[in-house]
Amino acid sequence: MDALNFLSKKEEVEKEINELKSQIEEKKRVLETLVSNQNKHNLTNWEISRYSRQILVPNIGIKGQESFKNGKVLIIGAGGLGCPAAQYLAGCGIGHIGLVDYDEVEENNLHRQLLHQENSIGTSKVRSAAQALRSINSHIKVDEYPVQLNSLNAIQIMQSYSVVIDASDNPSTRYLVNDACIMTKLPLVSGSAVGMEGQLTVYNYKGGPCYRCLFPDPPPPNTVSNCGDAGVLGPVPGVIGTMQALQAIHILLESEGVLSSKLLLFDGADTKFRTVKLRGKSAGCVVCGENPTITRLIDYEQFCGAPANDKHAAVNLLKPEERITVSELRTALKEKGKPVVIDVRSKTEFDICRLPGSVNIPLADIEKQSAQNTLKSVISKSPNPNEPVYVICRRGNDSQKAVKKLRELMLLNQDFFDVRGGLHAWARDIDHTFPIY
C-alpha cells in the first residue's frame, strides 16, 4: 500500500471512529434524559430504600418524602408529648428537627418519655433526646436548645423552622408559643395530656384561629392540673405526641387532614376519639385579629400569674408561727402521745405512702365542708383532744390551704398547724426510706 492510500484509509477510519463517538455521546444524552425523566427528585438510593414503605403510600410518594427531607419542625418540650412526636418525625425522615427544653431527666419521667434511658437520669432532656434521635436516624439534623423558652429567645429560635409543635405543659408557655407563632407566621400543633385524657388541635393555619382566639384570658393558676399533680398513664401522651407528629406531617404535605378549627379529644379510659368543631378566627383577637394590640412578646408569667415551667413553687399562705417543721412533728409524735395528723392528699396518694397513724381527709372534702363530721370524730377520739392538730400534704402547699379553711370553720376551737415542706421534707430530713413521687 502506497503512502497516499494509507493516509486516505487512515482518514476514513478516523472519520468512522468520530462518527461512532458522536453516536455514543448522543446515546448517553438520551439515556441521561430517560433517567432524569424517571427520577426527577433529590432522594438518594439509600433514602428510597429506607423510606420505601411510606413512599409507597399514595398520599406520600416521592414528592411527599422530599417535603419531609426539606421539613423543619421545632418541638417545644422533650417530655411525654415531645418524645413520641420527635421519635416518629425522625423515623419518617424529617430533615431538620429542633428540641427546646430547660429540664433534666428524672426517674419519674421514664414511664412515658421513652427517648430517655435510665442512664440519662440527671442529664439534659434535650441532649438525651437528641442523642436518641441521632441513633434512630443519623441522616437528619437535630438542633439542641437546652434553655427555657422566653420572650427574649422565642422568635430567634422559632424563625428557622416551618412548623412548631407545642409539647409544653403550662399556660404561660402556651401563650408565649402561640404569640411567637403569630409573629413568625408559623402553624402551631398544640397537644396536652393528663390522667387518662388528651387533646390536640392546630392553631394559626390557613386562616384558622389561634390559641388566644379561643382562650383570651388565662385560667386561674389553682385550676391548672399537670402530670406532677394529677398523674398520667404513659401511653396517653404517647398517643397525643404521635398524633402531633402526624399533624406536622399533614402540614408539610399540605394535606386535608390538618386539625385547624377542630379539637381532637382522646379518652384513654374508654379508648374513644371524638372531634369537635371550634370557633373560627376572632376578629377582635389581641394578637391575630384585625387590630392587634399585642405586637411584641410580653411577660407571660405575669400575664398568667404562674411560672412557665412545671416545677412546684412553694406558697406562703400562713404566718411562720402557724407552721412547724418536720423535726418538730417528729418530736411531737414521740413526746405527745400520738397527736392527730391529718393528711390532705387524695386517697390515691394516701395509698402510695403515709405517716403511721395519720388520717386521710382530702383537701377537696375540707374545701367543700363535707368532712366536718369526720374531722370532729377523729379529733374527739384522740387521746389528747386539746392538743394541736397537724396537717400534712405532699409538699407543704395544700396543707396550708387546708389549715386556713379549718381555722375558718373553727372546729372544736382546735388549733391547726401546717407541716412545712410536707412529706417531701419528711423523706429528705427524717426518713430517707420514705418513698417520694
Automatic annotation (TrEMBL):
GO cellular component assignments: cytosol
Entries under Pfam families matching the protein: Rhodanese (PF00581), ThiF (PF00899)
Coiled-coil segments on the chain, per record: 3-37
Boundaries of every Rhodanese domain copy: 335-435
Enzyme Commission designation: 2.7.7.-, 2.8.1.-
Binding site residues for ATP: 80, 101, 108-112, 125, 169-170
Binding-site positions, Zn(2+): 210, 213, 285, 288
CDD domains, alphabetized: ThiF_MoeB_HesA_family (cd00757)
Protein's recorded name: Adenylyltransferase and sulfurtransferase MOCS3 homolog
Lineage, highest ranks first: Eukaryota, Metazoa, Ecdysozoa, Arthropoda, Hexapoda
